[in-house]
Amino acid sequence: MSLKTISAKGELGAGFAIEVSCGAHRIIMDQPTHAAGQDSGPTPLELILAAVAGCFGTIGRLLAHQQKIELRGMRFDLQADYDPAGLLGRDPSVRPGFQALRVLVEIDADLSPEQKQAFLLEVERRCPLADNLTHGTQLHSQLVLP
Predict the structure, then answer these.
(1) Domain check: are 15 and 69 in the same one?
(2) What's the alpha-carbon Rg for the chain, to the nearest Å?
């Protein structure tokens, strides 16, 4: 099967706001007011958590359909730990990214606890965001001159 490419375009706005277009959709990210932002949207790190929840839910629906499971719902509580000293440049020995990301999931389906656990593990295995976060993806930044 051939690779599929998706894209997004972003631009720095006033202060810390960043506007990103994804197809016909627009996302605004910002920093909270206590961090010199205007709080006009979630932070980029919060959007990672939101994207993981979205990915788990999407893959959950797909998997339930494939396995003919009546999935009435899923609830997600996501938490991530990071040390701001890394991203602020205060300590170069500290990673700027998450040290840990926890996804707590409730599954509303007629499955035993063991079946729900197996279902969740398969959702995680097939979630592209989980794969990117746990296995890393090559990142290539390139300067474009006007």
Answers:
(1) no
(2) 18
